[in-house]
Design brief:
With 180 residues, the protein is α/β, with parallel strands linked by helices. Helix content is 44%, strand content 20%. The protein has a single domain, classed as 2-Layer Sandwich (Nucleotidyltransferase, domain 5). It has six helices and five strands. Strand 2 and strand 3 form a beta hairpin. Helix 2 packs parallel to helix 3.
Length: 180
């Protein structure tokens, strides 16, 4: 379409547009998420390589598979878990009725302090399987790249990417409808 009108666009121009527009688009999508997520959250963390160091990627989805929130952290501890739940509650404006996690020790205390004592916390590795499968998309994209070169690019990619976009991007018939 651009070539017909006499515009020649290189892959560098597209990459510059992505670097410039994706943070704004991801932030707009985060704001639109407010009040639209379910009351049952699945929370887990995985690790990704950023600038030759391993960092933890905290992710939460709701029962329908909609992304609740994403956070990249240097540590996997109570402070990081609290920061993640605080961020997820602020972004969505919703306090969940139920949170399903793996058996990490920091989650029960972080849920009690940040989300409240009324939130039911379930720990079962099989109940959290849908989120474990959701990590496959991000891992599948990170592995060929041998990790991210900077924390900024890792945050930008992880914040703007959901599993449906990743699986859609791998399908040639659906690739034109994906944002990233």
């Amino acid at each position: 379409m651009f070539l017909i009108r006499g515009f020649v666009i290189s892959y560098e121009a597209v990459r510059d547009w992505e670097a410039k527009l994706t943070p704004a688009l991801a932030e707009d999508l985060r704001r639109r998420r407010r009040g639209k997520v379910g009351r049952s959250w699945y929370v887990d963390e995985t690790y990704i390589r950023v600038h030759a160091r391993w960092k933890y990627l905290y992710r939460a989805i709701d029962r329908d598979g909609a992304l609740v929130d994403v956070m990249l952290s240097e540590h996997r501890d109570l402070a990081a878990a609290k920061a993640f739940f605080r961020s997820a509650k602020t972004v969505t404006g919703v306090t969940p009725d139920r949170v399903t996690t793996d058996g990490h020790d920091a989650y029960p205390r972080a849920i009690r302090t940040e989300l409240g004592k009324r939130v039911r916390h379930r720990t079962n590795r099989y109940l959290n399987n849908r989120l474990e499968q959701d990590h496959r998309g991000i891992k599948g994209r990170c592995r060929p790249m041998l990790g991210f070169k900077s924390t900024t690019s890792a945050r930008r990619y992880c914040r703007g990417t959901t599993n449906s976009e990743i699986s859609c991007a791998s399908d040639p018939a659906c690739a034109n409808t994906c944002l990233r």
